[in-house]
Amino acid sequence: MILTLEGTTSSKISAELVRIRRSLGSPAQGMVLTLIIVCDESEFASALEASIVAGREHPSRILLVVTAPGREARLDAEVRIGEGTPGEVVVIRMRGAVAAHPASVIRPLLLPDSPVVIWWPGKVPNNRTGDELAKLAMRRMTDAAAAPRPLTALRARARDYIPGDTDLSWTRLTPWRALLAAALDQYPATIKSVSVESERNNPSADLLAAWLRSKLKTSVSRKVSDGPGLTAVRMGTAAGDIAITRPDGLLASYTVPGQPERLVALKRRNFTELLSEELRRLDPDVIYERTVKSLLDGERSTRSKPRAKKASKKA
Amino acid sequence: MITDLRPNPLRDPQDRRLPRIAGPCVLVIFGVTGDLSTKKLMPAVYDLANRGLLPPGFALVGFARRAWAREDFAHVVHTAVKEHARTPFREEVWQQLSEGIRFVPGQIGDDESFSQLAETIADLDEARGTGGNHAFYLSIPPGLFQTVVDQLRSHGLAEQHPGRWSRVVIEKPFGHDLASARELNRIVLSVFPSSSVFRIDHYLGKETVQNIMAVRFANELFEPVWNNSYVDHVQITMSEDIGIGGRAGYFDGIGIARDVIQNHLLQLLALTAMEEPNSFEASQLRVEKQKVLDAARPSKRMDLHTARGRYSGGWAGGEKVKGYLEEERIPPDSRTETYAAIRVDIDNRRWAGVPFYLRTGKRMARRVTEIALGFKRAPHLPFAETDTEELGYNAIVLRIQPDEGVTLRFGAKVPGTQMEIRDVNMDFAYGEAFTESSPEAYERLILDVLLGDPPLFPQHEEVELSWEILDPVLDYWASLQEQPEAYAPGSWGPKSADVMLARDGFTWRRP
C-alpha cells in the first residue's frame, strides 16, 4: 500500500504508519533497525530499490530523505507498507526552511530503542561528523566510489573517521580478503612482497593495499590495469607467487606455489548484497578503522621518513 | 618455503566480516543417486560455493551403481543444483564447481571399484591440490556401512595422517535400538576415530535450533524462570501433515518413535533442559547434553504415560487420503505406529517434577515443530473468578518450523468496562526480524564437516543414551496385543494421547 501525505508533519506520518499496519491486520513490529537514506532526486530510484531488497534480510523502517531548496517550507511524505518488503518505507521530501532542520522531522520517526543507520548513496555532506542527521545514527555508510573524485573522497573520510563509519568500497573487498586469508591458511608462507592491480581511481584497491601492508608488514606496490575494478593480487613467497587474478569481474584464477591453478567464482557484488553485509554488523568496524589509519600513515611515511616508525607500530 | 605453524597474519578475531573457508578437500558421496543427495546435498554444496565458503580446489566425487561417465554425473549435479539450490544459479560458480566433479561407477562390494575410487581421489589430490583431505558421506542404508568402511580401510582411504584428515559422515537412523546402535558405532569406530565421525541430524543445523541456546544463555530474562519453580510442564511437538509417501519400505517396522523421537525430539529436549555449558566448545556442549540425557528416563507407568496411534483413511486438508494400512507395500498385519507420545521425566534439581511430553505424528493437522514451556498459575489471583475464566497458563513457545520464532503467552485485560482477562500472544518472528535467506541446515552441517567443527554433531554416547530412554517404551509397545489406536487424518492424534495428558491435569497445546 502506498499513501501520499502532502504538507504533513512527523506525527501525522507516525499515525499513518500505525493506521496502515492495523488495517493490514498486523500491528506487530518485527523491525530491527531504522535506516535513513539521504539522497537527491537523481539517486532516489536506485537507492530505494537497493534498500527495499536489503530490507528483506533486515526488516527495517527505511526513511528516504530527499531535500531540495525552495522558498516555501514544505514537508511531503509517501508511506509504503507491504510493497516488496516486510518493513516500512517512508519517502520524505523536505523543501525550504524545513530542509535545514531534517533531524527535527526524522527524530520522532526513529524506531524505539534500536539501531539507527544512515546511508549516503552518493553525495556526502562536507561536515559529515557534524551533520545533524548523522548524529542520530550509530553507523554511517558512505560510498567513495560514487564520489566524483573517489580517491580524494576516501582520504577525506579516512581523515575524519569516527567509530561507526564505514564505506562500501571496504565492503566490496570482503570476498577478496576472505580468499587471501584462506590462501594463507592453506599455504602459510612468509610474504616478501605484494602487488595489487586495479583500474585507475579505484578506492577499494587503495584500501586493500593498506590492509595488506598493515597486516603483512611489507611494502605493497600498485599497478594500473584496464579493470573492471580490482584485477589481481600477487603475494610473493620464496617459492613463487600466491596469485589471484580476475580479469573479467566474475571468475578468478587462483595459484599457490607447487599446486595446480584453479578457478574460483569472485563476482563483483551489487548494492543490495553490499548493504545486506553492512547491516549484519552494527558495531564499529575496528579493522576498517586500522586500515584507513594505515592508508593515511602509509602515505605520510612516504612523504616524511621520521614518522614511518611510529606509523608501522600503530598499524 | 612454508614456515611452521604460525598464526595467519591476515586473520584477526576482530575481523568478523571474514568467513571461515574450508580447506581444499574431496567430498565423496556414496548413494549419490538418492533423493537426499539430489535434493539436499548437491544443492547445499553449490550454495556454499556461491557464498564463497568452499575453497578453490574443492572436489566432489559421486559413487553409485550406474554406468555413468563424468559428464553424465556433472549433468545430474547441474540439474539438481538448478532445481533445488537456495541461491540463484550463476555460471561462474558452476564453472568453479564443475572442474572438480568426478564419478566412479561401481558396487560397494567390489574391490575393483574401490581401487578406482582410490585412484580418482589420488588424482584429485594431485590435480586439484586437495592435499589428502577426504570426507566420505554415507548416504546409504546402515546395513551397508560395514562393507563400505571395510573397503575404505582396505584401500587405505581411512588412514589418519598428520596434517591431513579423513572423515566419515553418517545419517540417521543411528540404529533401531540400543544394541543395534552400539553395533553400528562399533563398525564405524573400528575404522575411524570418534573425532572423525560426523553424525548428521539435520535438525541441529537449523538456525532456530541454535537459537534455543541464544535465547536461553544470552538473556537474563528467561533463565530465572527456566526451572521447576515456575514451569510445570513442557511439550515438544513435531508433526507432519503428510503420510509416509514412498517411504513404506523404510518406515514400516521402524515406526515414528524410532524415526523422530530418538534423534530430533530427544536432542530438542536436551537443548531445552541442559545446564549452561561453560563454553560452546564441542566437548563442553556434549558434556551438558549427555548429563541431561543421562538424567532423563521414560515414565515408570508406560500404560499411563505413553500413547501411540496410526492414521486411518479419510479427508485431510481438503484431500482424500489413504489410511496407513492402505498405503502401498504396507502389510495388512502391520503394527507400526505413525503417532507416538511419551512422557519423559528428568531427575535433577532443575527439572524434578516437571514432565516433558514428547509427541510426533504423520498426517496431523499441520506441519509444525515447537517447544512449549507451560508455566504454573499465579499463586493468587486478586480477581473475581469470572474475570479469569478465559485465562489459561503462561507459556514460552520456541517455534522451530515452519514459522520460526518465539511466542510469549500471557493474560491481558479485554478492553471494555469489566475486568476480564484473556490470553494474548506476543510474537517474535525470525523471518520478520532477520530474513528469508537463512542458510539451509545441510549447508551449515556440510561446511562444519569440512572445517572439522563438531559442536552440532551428536557423538555416539548421546545416541546410546537416547536409545536407553526410548528402548523401554518400544519394548512395552511390542509386548501389547492390540493395534495402535486409529486417529483421523488431519487431526491432532489419537484420543489416548489426550487422556494421557489429562491424567496429569494438562492438555495438549494446539500448535
Keywords:
A: 315 residues, alpha/beta, Rossmann fold, 6-stranded mixed β-sheet, disordered C terminus, B: alpha/beta, Dihydrodipicolinate Reductase, domain 2, 10-stranded mixed β-sheet, 6-stranded parallel β-sheet, 15 helices, 18 strands, globular
> Per CATH, what is the topology of the largest domain in chain B?
Dihydrodipicolinate Reductase, domain 2
CA-CA gap between termini of chain B: 61 Å
Number of domains of chain B: 2
* Rg from alpha-carbon coordinates of chain A: 22 Å
CATH class of the largest domain in chain B: Alpha Beta
Proportion in helices of chain A: 25-40%
How would you portray this structure in words?
- The complex is a heterodimer of chains A (315) and B (511).
- Chain A has two domains: 2-171, 3-Layer(aba) Sandwich (Rossmann fold); 174-265, Glutaredoxin (3-Layer(aba) Sandwich), CATH 3.40.30.
- An eight-stranded mixed β-sheet of chain A has the order 1-4-5-3-2-6-7-8, with helices on both faces. Chain A has a six-stranded mixed β-sheet with strand order 10-9-11-12-13-14, with helices on one face.
- Chain A has 315 residues and is an alpha/beta fold.
- Chain A has helices at 10-23, 41-57, 102-106, 150-159, 168-171, 174-186, 203-216, 271-280, 286-303, 308-314; strands spanning 2-5, 33-39, 60-68, 74-81, 88-95, 116-119, 139-142, 165-167, 193-198, 220-224, 230-237, 240-245, 251-255, 262-265.
- Chain A is elongated, with a radius of gyration of 22 Å.
- In chain A, helix 7 (203-216) links the parallel strand 9 and strand 10.
- Chain A has ten helices and 14 strands.
- Chain B has 511 residues and is of the alpha/beta class.
- Chain B has two domains: 25-171, 3-Layer(aba) Sandwich (Rossmann fold); 205-503, Dihydrodipicolinate Reductase, domain 2.
- In chain B, 34% of the residues lie in helices and 21% in strands.
- In chain B, strands 7, 8, 9, 12, 13, 14, 15, 16, 17 and 18 form a ten-stranded mixed β-sheet that branches. In chain B, strands 3-2-1-4-5-6 form a six-stranded parallel β-sheet, sandwiched between helices.
- In chain B, helix 1 packs across helix 13 and helix 6 (178-189) runs antiparallel to helix 14.
- Chain B is globular.
- The mean pLDDT of chain B is 90.
- At the A-B interface, helix 6, helix 7 and strand 14 of A face helix 3, strand 17 and helix 12 of B.
